[in-house]
Design brief:
It contains no helices and eight strands. It is an all-beta fold and 69 residues long. The strands form three sheets. It has a three-stranded antiparallel sheet, with no helix packed on it. A three-stranded antiparallel sheet has the order 5-6-7, with no helix packed on it. The protein has a two-stranded antiparallel sheet with strand order 2-3. It is globular and about 30 Å long. It starts with 16 loop residues before the first strand and ends with a strand.
């Protein structure tokens, strides 16, 4: 499966990404700011989503909002 970021760069487990847009997280009551760096991502079964931990919370992010570092 080919998982890519907003620019078309391939993403693999363990990569670091940067958010390209402010995102409100439903249920957690937090807002992730643009430019936040997320380390050690995990690729999911969907080619449009990645799994990561931010502030000790496991979150699934859409790849259209991240850029590979």
């Amino acid at each position: 499966m080919n998982v890519t970021d907003i620019n078309g760069n391939a993403l693999v487990d363990g990569d670091s990404v940067k958010l390209t847009k402010d995102l409100k997280v439903k249920g957690a009551g937090i807002t992730l700011k643009r430019g936040t760096v997320v380390k050690n991502i995990r690729v999911t079964e969907s080619s449009e989503e990645i799994d990561c931990k931010i502030k000790k919370t496991s979150i699934i992010l859409r790849t259209e909002f991240v850029q590979k570092m």
